Amino acid sequence: MKNINELKKELISLSLKIGDYYGINLDFSIESINNVEAILSKVANKYENDKNNEGIQGIALELAAYIISVIEKNIIIGEWERDSKEFGEDTFPYNLGSGNIIFPYIWCQKRIYDGSGEDIWSKFKALVLDKNIKT
Mind listing the pLDDT tens digit for each residue in 22-61? Predict the structure, then answer.
């Protein structure tokens, strides 16, 4: 079985297809995290209407891989793991270094299931951009 880093390229490719499906551009810029928010909003609306959660875990993981790729392209290379010592299996933490660990997979899940109060851009800004992480 492949580890998460071996799957990352495939997951990112799938995230771009999700963007294409919704007509939303994902160009690996920091600003494109707003586009991830727009995609998650559409997925959340669909879930709210039909309560069908089929494929949602995959979408959340694919978009988490995209968020990580934006961080790696524009800010810093960190370490993506499958499990967290604190939060358990399949939480997919991303360690930015200096004790900064983020959970973009959980962000995406919460945005879909819990609505707009779980805005991805706000989390990204507060936990990545405003942390003054140095490359």
Answer: 999 999 999 999 999 999 999 999 999 999 999 999 999 9
Closest CA to 42 of 18, 61, 62, 26: 18
Q: How far is CA 110 from CA 18, 105, 107, in A?
A: 18, 9, 5
Q: Distance between CA atoms of 35 and 3, rounded to whole angstroms?
A: 27
Does the model's pTM come out above 0.70?
A: yes
Give the rounded distance of the alpha carbon of 135 from its chain centre.
Answer: 20
Structural domains of the chain in order of their starting residue, each with its CATH number: 4-131 (1.20.120)
Cα separation, 111 vs 113, in Å, equals: 6
Position 89: which residue type?
A: E
